[in-house]
Amino acid sequence: MAPVKAAELVIESGPGQLAGLHWDQLQLEFRGASPDPDWRIAINGLNLDGAMELGRIELTCRRASRPVSDGCADGHVDWQLEESDLALSASFVHRREAGVHRLVIEDEHWRMDVSVPDDEPARFSARIALSDLDLSELPAMVADQLGLSLLYGQVNGQIMVEPERMTADLELTGAGFDDQEGFLAGDGLELDIRFESAINPLAGSFTLTLAQSAGELLMGSLYLPPPAEPMTLELTGRLDDEIIHLDRFALLDADALELEGMTRLIREADGWQSERVRIESAHVHFPLGWERWVDGHAAAAGFADIKAQGRVEASVDWQTGRPADLQTEWFDVTIEDPGERLVVAGIDGTLTWGRFGPDSDLSWKSLMLYGLPFGPSSLALRAEAIGVGLDRPLRLPLLDGAIVIDQVVWAPGDEQAPGFGFDARIEPLDLAELTRALEWPEFGGVLSGEFPGVMLIDDVLKVTGGIDIQAFSGQIQLTELAVERPFGTLPALSAQVEFSRLDLLELTGAFNFGRMEGQLSGWMRDLRLLDWRPVAMDTRVFTHEDAPRRRISQRAVENLSDLGGGGGALLSGTVLRVFEDFPYRRAGLACRLSNNICHIDGVARHESGGFYIVEGRALPRLDIVGHRRLVDWPQLMGQLVTMLE
Description:
This protein has six helices and 45 strands. It is mainly beta. The strands form two sheets. It has a 28-stranded antiparallel beta sheet that branches. It has a 17-stranded antiparallel beta sheet that branches. Strand 43 (611-616) and strand 44 (624-626) form a beta hairpin. The model is unreliable at 1-5 (pLDDT under 50).
């Protein structure tokens, strides 16, 4: 009997469709060998409803059922998304039972189970199970499409696709990522993900819940260390054409932050942009809320490691093209800078920001600013169309006096005058109390001042007017005062300083320099401090020859001689050591500081080529002559500190 020749069938076609699937080219090969026929289908240009490109897919069955439409016991699928590295190669099993086709495709770390009814193929369902799927082994285009340069971690869980909805229940462990711009990053993440939406998530409502139990996150200047308790984010929204409506978002970070609100996102050429954000309620609990959600931003502004206590409640409504509406309420808040630039305790009240700017009714129990201990006070700001002003003067009690701000000048919406200004004055302060409070050498006198115009523009505080100090029975005046970055890193101060007829006996007694009698005047022109240390100035001090009594002690002689390079043993080994003090005609020193070098001069030239620091008179006559013209400034300061100890 002649053998039966196997039947072979090859079909090729152009464009076609089945339910929502469309293709550009289809090829079918069938070999009906007995007992196990086999077949192959190759489809090019596959897409879903013309919107989602699916590339090329090839199905091969090595052991088909009879009839062939009833299934395949040993199949293989190869899929390649065109012009990308996204591909799949896996085995499959297909069978038809009771009018339902069931397709199971699986690999080592995933399994997809699809069911398609004969009579209604559009009502298919699918279940995808993932087991230790390694994200780092995904094609590079996956990370590229997400805007990431790095993606890793393991995924477990399942995704369900049903006729009316899609759900996902996933767990990520040891996960991390880094975006291409270095703005977002994560490491060591443990995430639970719950997602549910209409079958097409781009055309219906959805809910998403994320729970982070481990790992760290970086978002710009915001750094979130691993949470002590799981942090959760819940989103409920819908897509309407080119707009994503997040009807509700809620974030819970235990003992740190709770907030709830809504937002609206619009697709722009460069991605999704917020068109409106409304935070209906936010509760920030310190200290953890500060450490996790504020400290990074504060550190970027020069205020790292701030300590905070208390809590703040807030709401925000912002929409493109109009000013934000901010409402905050403060409850016994304390903020402490470890550098002691700012310590404010017991803040209570409200601070709002509306159409015209800020309004406030805030009070506090104490304030310390650069070591100055201020008492309790309150700030009452009112914003109107013409600008922001004070309801009443802001009085900051300081020891036996006060600093008073009488008027605020600020128009936040005025592009021509964007700065902040105020008028202030210093009610007379006892210098003895002030120097004790600042732990300076104690001396008496009175500090007062009038500042008819203080402006803060581009982080530079400029003062019109001046500070008058009545001290050492004389007068000290500071003018042209300006401070750059007053609360930031490396603050810089510039000023002009003039002092007139200071009593030398009081001055040298306060600073333990050695006794001098007489009167001293002088100036510090173009003074500049960087981080409160002098880096530039043109200084000269000199005594008055009409002072009734001018004498200098042995210790002051030795110290002045050392500073001027005249030799530290000026009196030792001479008969002059038996005198306690000496009369002098005049005395003075000058220093022009530049590049850490002090260019020194005295009151007159000396015939030796040096300069007089002290020119003696009468008997016993004593001259102090300096010879060092250039002195290392840090070394000079070290000498001076040693002398004053």
